[in-house]
Amino acid sequence: MADSKVWFITGTSSGFGRGMAEFLLKQGHKVVATLRKPEALSDLVGQYPATQLLVIKLDVTQSADITAAFEKAHGVFGRIDVVFNNAGQMVSGEVEATNETEAREMFDVNFWGAAQVSREAVRFFREVNQPQGGRLLQVSSGVGLVGIASCGYYSASKFALEGLSEALANELDPTWNIKASVVVILVTLLEPGPFRTQISENNRLAPVHPAYADPALPGSKVRASLETGDFNDGNPEKAYAAFEKASRLEDPPIQLPLHRGALAMASGKGKSLLEAVERYGTWSDDLYFD
């Protein structure tokens, strides 16, 4: 295809990462698919030539792996146009119920791993790509906008990614031609709502804390939804097309909620903040040195 791009994708073993890789390959793009266990993509390796698909072993919690993966991608394809920063994991449960070790491991992937990939992506776009430039798409979540019961640590990891990405986008020199954005599901934050992918199927659910056993509590209701998966009504195939479309926006938003659930979260959060400003704004009238 005439406008074929080179995409660097993390976390391609399953979920949005695997699905996005397949979608892009079918569209004729070149894909650098990274994951901890490359053998999981043996079927794709058999379908696509090495001139279109490069599979690299990458653990995003290991900085050396990240640097090596970008170097190998450069050696094979000469540049990277889009980084789809997707690798993540999910552990659910009330804050008091969640094991600290698992929560920290999740942060190592969802925040610190994503942060390290972001740093290398920006450096690569600025110092390696010729011509200079690139797009960084951060896969966040609707719960990266609004913290919900039984998803406290997962939400916190995505909140942290959102804050880092907003700051990063504001730091970039426009002359570098780097666009960054964030998704809910350019730096753009993609903020996807509940799409039917493996992250919900692979979600680790912490044992119920006795203090939160009441089925009427919000956390219990969220647990029940996570166990049944009934809320996952988003079609991931349609999400992939939206993600690819976002990579082509000339003036992308910093945050891009995708799914009616994510839109409701974003709208509700904005309304709540505005109401607080309007109701309590006068409290700030006399808080300054004369």
Automatic annotation (TrEMBL):
It comes from Hydnomerulius pinastri MD-312. PROSITE patterns: ADH_SHORT. Keywords: NADP, Oxidoreductase. GO terms for molecular function: oxidoreductase activity. SUPFAM superfamilies: NAD(P)-binding Rossmann-fold domains. Belongs to the short-chain dehydrogenases/reductases (SDR) family. CDD domains: 17beta-HSD-like_SDR_c. This is NAD(P)-binding protein. Coiled coil: none annotated. InterPro entries: NAD(P)-bd_dom_sf, Sc_DH/Rdtase_CS, SDR_fam, SDR_oxidoreductase. The keyword Oxidoreductase applies.
